[in-house]
UniProtKB/TrEMBL annotation:
Pfam families associated with the record: tRNA-synt_2 (PF00152)
Molecular function via GO: asparagine-tRNA ligase activity; ATP binding
PANTHER family linked: ASPARAGINE--TRNA LIGASE, CYTOPLASMIC 2, ASPARTYL/LYSYL-TRNA SYNTHETASE
One record GO biological process: asparaginyl-tRNA aminoacylation
Gene Ontology cellular-component annotations: mitochondrion
Protein name: Asparaginyl-tRNA synthetase 2
Classification of source organism: Eukaryota, Viridiplantae, Streptophyta, Embryophyta, Tracheophyta
Domain (Aminoacyl-tRNA synthetase class II (D/K/N)): residue spans on this chain: 230-283, 367-501
UniProt keyword annotations, A-Z: Aminoacyl-tRNA synthetase, ATP-binding, Ligase, Nucleotide-binding, Protein biosynthesis
Amino acid sequence: MSNEHQVLDETPKPMETEMPVPVPVVFHKYSERVLLKTILDRRDGGSGLLDQRVVVGGWVKSSREIRKDPVPAVHTGVGGEVKEGAGGKDVKCVEVFQSRIPFLRTIIKVFGGSTGHGHGHGHTKDKLESVVPRPPQPAISMLQISDGSSVMSLQIIVDSSIAPPSQLLPTGTCILAEGVLQKPTLQGKHAIELKTEKLLHIGIVDQESYPLSKKSLPLARLRDCAHFRPRTTTVASVMKVRSALNQASHAFFRNQGFVHVEVPILTATDTGAFSKNFRVSTSNFSSKEVDGEGPVSMDDTANVSLDTVKHSLVEKIKKVEELKRSDSNKEALIAAVQDLHKTNLLAEELEARSKSKSKSKAHSKTKSVKTHGEFFSNQAFLTTSGSLHLESCASALGNVYAFGPRFEADRSESKKYLAERWMIETEIAFSELEGAMNCAEDFFKFVCEWVSDNCYENLYFLSKRVDRGIVDRLHSAASTPFEKITYATAVEVLNKVGVDKGSKKEEPPKPN
């Protein structure tokens, strides 16, 4: 090779890393907008997405208005030539007109026929304002919006020429904005903001009736407006953590080869003999009326004898026959017929109830009991457990699990008790107690680790607002091995600790 080629080959080439390629934002497949979490949940806070055009949507969590600097003064030269202001920008016609206001005021004062100095000045001012409407002062709306995908909110800048601040500032306003991501105009906690160029949608709210505000509200207060609860960061974080727990549960059992089985919610089987069941009924006793006194339920007729109603029915039949023979008062006859019909319905209902009671005494609780007017031929209950269904499936499919709502009708004064709860139930074929315990431990550690990895921002927020030790406990539960003890040892430990003084008195546990 020649010396010239050798010199060209030795020339250093620029590194590829010197010109980083900007990472494009990802638009949502079904809404053609960018989820805020793809911008805000990045490690750089979104600063790597500068100068990119995006469409975002959300509702206003907080806002403020920033007034722009006043319009610079306009100077006129010789011959009425308009000079540029201090900023060197072109002067609009409105600004020129405003600069001539003192001259116009003088003309109106001469031709307006003002008599007094003070009265004429006010009259002139009213005329001038009617002729020259004062333009609104330019301003910028600085909005913090959220779409529910991230704990953090995105700062959006909207000029008053695009939309008036009065429409955008109220908390709860829904907007869909298109603009460019840029560095924040004001120093603060935000690493990026959106400069709005176009507003695609504005959903205004009535600020006086909107329940949420910039300040946090007690959770008990939010029960009065349940449809707004998920807009609070606390409730939204809890719902996201619960969603992650559901996903982790299905992922664990799928990875371990379990089959998901849907068990019925309505069942005739009393699977929870230790608790009370919610009975499902389709009868409507309130439609029965007696003697024109309004609706009568079965509870109201609990002390009414069937023989008494039958005797009253015979008397009413005689009265109707007498009125038919006399033909003296048609209105009384119509009222008597209606009264007879109501009494007849009550007699049929009492007779059906008497038959159902006799059948229930003769048969067990789980056997077929036909109730008058019911949809189901047997007694139906909301399920308390799906274990019996899972046992039959496990004998055919091996390892199975169910995940769904379970119901118990036991009354309790504890705030932690729920009549409806979601339960995970498993059945493992050919497994001993040790294997079931290992499965429960692995499952618990798996879901703790899953939530810690996928809901860190939500857990961090809840640790500041609800429980400071929630993150540490999850990490500890996921990494610390469980200690296994016998039932007798557990009873001894509980007896040593004793029962909480604030709770009701309970008998100490006894060994088997």
